[in-house]
């Protein structure tokens, strides 16, 4: 059967993550479930859509990737139009392409890029951004940059992994941590960035060959702890070496996180 690759964006606020909660006593809506509902309605038979990986409850996506198989006589249908006509407004299919029959959205992925957005004042958060940022207040980006340099590279990231998913190893290669805007910002003692003309939204990008459960949110929590003076950047190597989740700062909130791109 022909195989189709989907590129999907969604607002995760109203969903219990990407993956269907098959064994939950009180099932919650998921993005995978919504996509499969549309495919089943069109094809008249249950359809399994495989994603590149899970996203947590409340986490968003700008470039999630998935695949599913269709009968030959349905392969040339305008699936993008079909999905977007029948999906809720907070899920959109950005692209559909026919791929080789052995393509697998998860197995063939060579890496992912996540984005996490901070809002740099506690005085207010624009309502349109409220579901998409963590309002941390001002941060010392120089301290965060220093901490990020310790995290880049190949490490055992057990300290930054929440329990819940079995994995063979916690070793991952964090290829880069970057941010936008790129330049210097005032220190965390600046009372109000807006009054000195500083952009209030700061987005961090994490690229790796793979991520552990809630790893990006845990890394972000650690960077913010450094940026607010609660943790020294020089303490980060010890956190990595400890391989102990209990020693690291708290997990960052879900709403600031988005799966930006899956690499193949």
TrEMBL record:
UniProt key word Endoplasmic reticulum: no
Recorded family membership: Belongs to the tRNA pseudouridine synthase TruA family.
Reactions this protein catalyses: uridine(38/39/40) in tRNA = pseudouridine(38/39/40) in tRNA
Positions that bind substrate: 114
Alphabetically ordered keywords of this record: Isomerase, tRNA processing
UniProt-listed PANTHER family: PSEUDOURIDYLATE SYNTHASE (PTHR11142), TRNA PSEUDOURIDINE SYNTHASE-LIKE 1 (PTHR11142:SF0)
Pfam families the record matches: PseudoU_synth_1 (PF01416)
Function: Formation of pseudouridine at positions 38, 39 and 40 in the anticodon stem and loop of transfer RNAs.
Biological processes per GO annotation: tRNA pseudouridine synthesis
Top EC class of this enzyme: isomerase
Residues of the Pseudouridine synthase I TruA alpha/beta domain: 8-106, 147-264
Any one GO molecular function term: tRNA pseudouridine(38-40) synthase activity
Enzyme Commission number(s) of this protein: 5.4.99.12
Gene3D superfamilies tied to this protein: Pseudouridine synthase I, catalytic domain, C-terminal subdomain, Pseudouridine synthase I, catalytic domain, N-terminal subdomain
Organism: Desulfovibrio psychrotolerans
Domain of life (superkingdom): Bacteria
Taxon lineage: Bacteria, Pseudomonadati, Thermodesulfobacteriota, Desulfovibrionia, Desulfovibrionales
Protein known as: tRNA pseudouridine synthase A
Active site: 56 (nucleophile)
């Amino acid at each position: 059967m022909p195989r189709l690759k989907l590129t999907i964006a969604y607002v995760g606020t109203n969903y219990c993550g990407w993956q269907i909660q098959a064994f939950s006593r009180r099932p919650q809506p998921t993005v995978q479930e919504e996509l499969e509902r549309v495919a089943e309605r069109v094809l008249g038979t249950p359809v399994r859509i495989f994603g590149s990986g899970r996203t947590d409850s409340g986490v968003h996506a700008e470039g999630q990737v998935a695949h599913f198989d269709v009968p030959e006589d349905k392969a040339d249908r305008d699936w993008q139009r079909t999905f977007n006509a029948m999906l809720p407004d907070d899920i959109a299919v950005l692209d559909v392409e026919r791929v080789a029959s052995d393509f697998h959205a998860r197995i063939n992925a060579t890496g992912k890029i996540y984005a996490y957005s901070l809002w740099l004042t506690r005085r207010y958060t624009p309502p349109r951004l409220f579901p998409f940022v963590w309002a941390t207040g001002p941060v010392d980006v120089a301290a965060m940059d220093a901490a990020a340099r310790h995290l880049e590279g190949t490490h055992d990231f057990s300290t930054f992994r929440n329990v819940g998913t079995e994995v063979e190893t916690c070793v991952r290669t964090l290829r880069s941590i970057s941010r936008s805007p790129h330049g210097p910002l005032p220190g965390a003692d600046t009372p109000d960035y807006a009054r000195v003309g500083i952009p209030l939204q700061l987005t961090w990008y994490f690229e790796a060959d793979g991520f552990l459960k809630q790893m990006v949110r845990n890394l972000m929590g650690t960077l913010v702890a450094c940026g607010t003076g609660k943790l020294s950047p020089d303490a980060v190597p010890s956190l990595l070496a400890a391989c102990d989740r209990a020693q690291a700062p708290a997990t960052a909130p879900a709403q600031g996180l988005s799966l930006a791109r899956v690499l193949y």
